[in-house]
Design a protein that fits this description.
Bound molecules: pyridoxal-5'-phosphate
CATH topology of the largest domain: Aspartate Aminotransferase, domain 2
Largest sheet: 7 strands, mixed
Number of helices: 13
CATH architecture of the largest domain: 3-Layer(aba) Sandwich
Strand content: 15-25%
Number of domains: 2
Length: 398
């Protein structure tokens, strides 16, 4: 493995703006759980591009939908409708109807950050002048655009970009008293992840989410749930909020929605969505015909394989196996969004690098924990192979 992926290509200088650090591997091909780098070395992908490719790489149904639609119609602008995006929106609304019992409407976009931007603007319009603040949690991650970053509860990420947009405040996660203390008559909404993914795979306490829902009802606030990482079956239910049995007003999603195709969405209960008027929000690429075809193909396939059930079952198996490994202090998370907390003194980044060298893709989500998010389609033999690689590598560290 080269020290820097771009050096293997004879590229002296990385062609990208240096916001992503120096990648160590350059991939050329993927199929299912497997990836191959440019030198032909095989890897098992237990990260899925940060919980994106939940159906695995090069899924035939997704590839077929993409190539078919590419030959039909890609884009017509939002001055007109197109049938694939309209159909996809109906399918996603149906999924949310089943999860919430609420009829809602959808805004398509291209990423998780954009989905949250739409939600944050909706909250401001809903609250009205003077009631525009949004409360989110410390440790949260909501995206890199300025407002999504302001909502992100990680002050170190704000620091280089001061001043941040006005109207964002943060409270301790899973602490209802802290949230209650932060609410005054300038607050319009609360934005939370059901599992803080980037924050270290830290699940919200279901009772906390129920208390938040009750508080929002009492104060007339929107409850907005960021399902960008957790949505579409990843946690063992279609959406993470379902573990708490709550009904959000707004849900944002992306990642698994396109299985690698860039698409996101904001869903809002119909009465809440109605505060947006023509011209309030938009995007050239909101609801392209191509994205619509992919969203429908991915959702159809996720339903066909019963993604939440698979994620719950495989997640339980994987948790049991990982818990028995040397150097593992504990495994947290639900479904196939897991963090392996390493024994004190073991550096997660060093383990991650060794795993990568041994052909297993994971990520050091904190200094002491690895994140695992394999595809729902992962085979039993692939789970065993990944666990064996982890066993070998972890033994070197204990
Ligand atoms: N929200 C959550 C919970 C996320 O995990 C992420 C990305 O990791 C985002 C928002 C931002 O999504 P994107 O990178 O697609 O803008």
């Amino acid at each position: 493995m080269s020290a820097h992926a771009f050096s293997t290509q004879g590229v002296d200088h990385c062609p990208f703006v240096p916001v992503f650090g120096a990648p160590q591997v350059m991939f050329a091909k993927g199929a299912g759980t497997e990836l191959w780098d440019v030198d032909g070395k095989r890897y098992l992908d237990f990260l899925c591009g940060l919980a994106v490719t939940s159906l695995g790489h090069s899924h035939p149904a997704v590839a077929a939908a993409l190539s078919h639609q590419a030959g039909q119609l890609l884009h017509v602008s939002n001055l007109f409708a197109n049938s694939t995006a309209a159909h996809a929106a109906q399918q996603v609304n149906q999924l949310l109807l089943e999860a919430t019992g609420q009829h809602g409407q959808l805004f398509f976009c291209n990423s998780g950050a954009e989905a949250n931007e739409a939600a944050l603007k909706l909250a401001r319009k809903f609250g009205g002048r003077g009631r525009h603040a949004v409360v989110s949690a410390y440790g949260s991650f909501h995206g890199r655009t300025l407002a999504a970053l302001a909502a992100t509860g990680q002050p170190a990420k704000h620091e280089p970009f001061f001043p941040m947009p006005d109207g964002f405040r943060h409270v301790t996660f899973n602490d209802i008293n802290a949230l209650e203390g932060a609410i005054d008559d300038t607050v319009a909404a609360v934005l939370l992840e059901p599992v803080q993914g980037e924050g270290g795979v830290l699940p919200a306490d279901p009772q906390y989410l129920r208390d938040v829902r009750a508080l929002c009802d009492e104060r007339g606030l929107l409850l907005m749930i960021d399902e960008v990482q957790t949505g579409y079956g990843r946690t063992g239910m279609w959406f993470g909020f379902q573990h708490a049995g709550i009904v959000p007003d707004v849900v944002t999603m992306a990642k698994a929605m396109g299985n690698g195709f860039p698409v996101g969405a904001m869903w809002a209960r119909r009465e809440v969505a109605a505060v947006f008027q023509p011209g309030d929000h938009g995007s050239t690429y909101s609801g392209t015909a191509l994205a619509g075809a992919v969203v429908t193909a991915v959702l159809d396939e996720l339903r066909r394989i019963d993604a939440p059930w698979l994620a719950a079952r495989r997640g339980a198996e994987l948790t049991t196996k990982l818990s028995q490994l040397p150097g593992v202090a504990g495994v947290r998370g639900t479904g196939l969004l897991l963090a392996v907390e390493l024994s004190p003194g073991i550096d997660a980044k060093a383990v991650y690098q060794q795993l990568l060298a041994n052909g297993l893709v994971t990520n050091a989500v904190t200094a002491t924990a690895l994140r695992l998010a394999p595809p729902f389609t992962v085979a039993d033999t692939e789970i065993d192979e990944a666990v064996a690689i982890m066993h070998t590598v972890l033994q070197e560290f204990v």
